[in-house]
Amino acid sequence: MSAAEEVVAEGHEAVEAVPKRAMTLGTGTSLVVLAALLIVPMFVKNFIIFQMTMLLIYGLAVLALNILTGGSGQFSLGQSAFYAVGAYVSAVLMEHANVNYALTIPISAVICFGFGYLFGKPALRLSGIYLALATFALATAMPQLLKLNFLEHWTGGVQGLVVTKPDAPFGLPMSQDMWLYYFTLAVTVAIYIFSVNLLRSRSGRAFMAIRDNEIAASSMGVNVALYKTLAFGVSAGITGVAGSLGAIAVQFVAPDSYTITLAISLFLGMVVGGVGWLPGSFVGAAFIIFVPNMAESISKGLSGAVFGVLLFLVIYLVPHGARQVAILGQQLVGKLRKN
Amino acid sequence: MELFTNQVLAGIATGAIYACMALAVVMIYQAIDHLNFAQGEMAMFSTFISWQLMQWGVSYWAAFLITLAFSFVAGIAIERILFKPLVKAPVLTNVAGFIALFAIINSSAGLIWDFTIKQYPTPFGSAPFLGSQLISTHQAGMIGVTVALLLALYFFFQYTRIGLAMRAAASVPESARLVGINTSWMIALGWGMATAIGSIAGMLIAPVVFLEPNMMGGVLIYGFAAAVLGGLSSPFGAVVGGFLVGVFENLAGTYIPGVGNELKLPIALALIISVLVVKPAGLFGRHIVKRV
Amino acid sequence: MTPLLNVKDLRAYYGQVQALHGLSFSLNEGSLVTLLGANGAGKTTTLRAICNMVRSTGGVEFEGKPLNNRSTESIVRFGIAHVPQGRGTFTNMTVEENLQLGAITRKDRAGIVSDIERMYAHFPVLKQRHTQQAGTLSGGEQQMLAVARALMLRPRLMLLDEPSFGLAPLVVRDLFGILGKINREDKVSILVVEQNAQLALELADQAYVIETGRIVMSGKAKDIANNEEIRKSYLGY
């Protein structure tokens, strides 16, 4: 086959190869978005601020999945497990050990990183559908593990734990919701920048080499085992941070909040946002937060069906997710500039 | 020791459910190279249709056959209308489509027939089978039907021209087109057959787990696990896998302390995955040599 | 006389890349034509474009009928058999199943059975291995199988993409001998794409040379083979 033929060869790779350049927004657009995120909360009600906080939190979780699947090509339906661990770490530390909420974030990140790394090890031999099953097993096991009797003293069993929402520090004149929003925003921006740099770094290139062709990558000297487990670890760590922030925002952790439904929602968020496109994580998060509500307001009895129909509409119009819309937008802007 | 044998036998009996579902799963996998998450829901919906027909006075076997035909046609229709347009889209997008289909079917069934549990009849009766306390006549019937289905599928794939064409289309689609096979329709046919088989699974399972919109959730997962354990390319493996999963599940529940009903699923899955780590292509799967 | 295959101004694209830039040639019934050229010149693309396996514009006519907007499988049903690069064997199926697949569009059971016997006569090694999985055959054997499978269609036109690729010289001579026989005795028109120009020119009646997606030379195979200048500039020997 000629080189041209190979480039456009038919047939599905398990995960579409997204070129490195395309994985982020341009600097200009990023600054505009950031400015909006900073200013808007000053003008809206607390409940909207809360929703924006949840958007950032789920966005982080989808971003983590994007690094794992879009970046290193490993398919995971188990992110809800890491989210749950992060949430519980924060809740337990805050309520049983009086640890400051901000401190629980890095602790959660480290613990979940370890957890993810450990899970990644036996998962090395699995890929595609097999990995999906394994991560699915993890996700279904987690709520049950959290309900186990001998952990009840710490986890609060089926009832879960109530989490105290922190006040703004130094007596700053803002509501708890607003403070938590800016705190979450800071963490999100930090993680986003970290992720962008990670994917641009040597490790990121290793991830993508593994995603595109594991055998070729290994024959080029990439330590496949190391990078695959690393990807799992990083992804779990970020998801854990999201879980911690979620626990604080919602003021509550309980086993049945972290079921396979959450894992599936995060997966859908990744697809709708555009697999491997980091900014799309937040578009995807918006989809999974707002569209189910929309569906319910359209028809209470058929809310699932309406959601399904809306999801189908999205994937027909933009099979490659929000990234496709962004590329179209870029092309339009390019054409306008020429004229 | 007696407890062990009893649990194994009981596991085989429940495993018939998973074996039947696993057959449908493998059927679809052969056609489209993916697993369809909505298959359980489609089986459930078909079962509801047959129930509704019986509510309207249709006899069991007439309802069974009508439902079978309906499921076959519906499977083809769903593929042509909903998934043919996604054929060029990435795999993960297709998976999102399966999830959307799941939501639509589950929700619709809930609206039409509500979520209360309903009794579903069995043509085999529920007396103890040959006097055994562990296997009822219905469970024996399930095993019988599953094995019969497996034989029929084997015959279909090995000895009919259309079966050969389907195998070719699944194995090397481009070459299949080059011998004149319409690979697109082979996919549709695969969906039709998988949906029909799924409906049989549903109609066999409903008497045991009772008919309600969420009845297939756990069964589907075990069906996937069984199919994967058996090796996704082998219907025979799927059936063996189904029985094994039933046995694993029972033994795990009996012998591992602290494992209540809720943890049976993850433990069974963990066991299966351990097998896969040792034998990545499944017990009877063809070892796929990865070409670079 | 209308040519069996008439290609006019064929352009083909892989995504944004254009691989054929207005190719035109024709093939008469009963002839054996070879398409020559260097790697990447567009030979394989030409065959794929004829079978509509790649996006293309321009006119391709078979027995006067246009092939343009038809699916690959319907083009095959017109009687065009394509042996692709790499043979495209159904590796998971037996040798005999591969042959049966070649005839899957035919309805005459008796004819199919007798044709399979004829293939075994042409290629005895296939008969020896007829219950073996096709993937276990050697390269040369798989090539024979691919040709036999194509013949099971009872094609009017056979397209072959680099049949000599990866085969030992003796095996190639054997294969080409059989191709010549099929062309003369079974009256199957053949279009063979080849990198091994010398052998191809010995076999063929007509030859075309492609370079970067265009025909740059055409003529009787004998004349091109005897023309040292052409051989040196375009064919490298």
Number of discrete helical segments of chain C: 10
Structural class of chain C: alpha/beta
CATH architecture of chain C: 3-Layer(aba) Sandwich
Structural class of chain A: mainly alpha
Low-confidence stretches of chain A: 1-13
Output mean pLDDT of chain A: 85
The helix/strand order of chain C is EEEHEEHEHHHHEHEHEEHH
Specify the overall morphology of chain C: globular
Radius of gyration of chain C: 17 Å
Contiguous uncertain segments of 5+ residues of chain C: none
Give the tally of structural domains of chain C. 1
Biggest sheet of chain C, in brief?
Answer: 6 strands, mixed
How large is the radius of gyration of chain A? 20 Å
Question: Helix amount of chain C, in percent?
Answer: 25-40%
Tally the beta strands of chain A.
2
- Oligomeric category: heterotrimer
Helix content of chain A: over 70%
- Sheet-strand content of chain A, in percent, reads under 5%
Explain the overall architecture.
The complex is a heterotrimer of chains A (339), B (292) and C (237). Chain A has 339 residues and is mostly helical. Chain A has a domain of 211 residues. Chain A has a two-stranded antiparallel sheet with strand order 1-2. The relative contact order of chain A is 0.18. By secondary structure, chain B is an all-alpha fold. Chain B has one domain: Orthogonal Bundle (ABC transporter involved in vitamin B12 uptake, BtuC). Chain B contains 11 helices and no strands. The longest helix of chain B has 31 residues. Chain C has a single domain, classed as Rossmann fold (3-Layer(aba) Sandwich), CATH 3.40.50. In chain C, a hairpin with a 2-residue loop joins strand 9 and strand 10. Chain C is globular, with a radius of gyration of 17 Å. Chains in contact: A-B, A-C, B-C. At the A-B interface, helix 6, helix 10, helix 12 and helix 14 of A face helix 4, helix 9 and helix 11 of B.
